[in-house]
Amino acid sequence: MREEGWQAYLACVEELLRAPQVQAMREIRHHPGVSCYEHSVFVSYTAFRLAEKWGADSRSAARAGLLHDLYLYDPKSLPSYKQCFAHPVAALRNAAQLCGELTAAEADGILCHMWPMARHIPRCREAAAVCLADKLCATAEVLQIWRRSALRVKCVHFM
Description:
Elements lengths: L2 H15 L2 H4 L5 E3 L2 E2 H19 L3 H10 L12 H20 L4 H9 L12 H18 L7 H8 L2
Antiparallel strand pairs: 1-2
């Protein structure tokens, strides 16, 4: 990972990373051995890089990636099949409360990140970047590839 790439990424999301709502995601277990915060930063950075490569708005992709799982409740409080559909809506609501106003690409990225499991299909490249990043990152987390990543060290130790 290039340090200048990490710094460009931080310029897009640093204010959000410091928000108490985003920091609260550290306490929510997401995938085995991974907090919701770790997962969201991983998705955010990956979506940022994909958007850069695709000529899309990398800032919107990074912000949507960071906020895509900002549901802020215990996911075990819902049956797993309902969590798939409910958490993007809760995350979008919480992100709008946190940010005031979201761009259309940010809102689309948050709401559509569970496609194709959920019915909302991404309508822009930034949302497609978040959706793909979410799948790639979840796979890396479940396969334990994430544990050995240099990016994980940066994510876990930021703040």
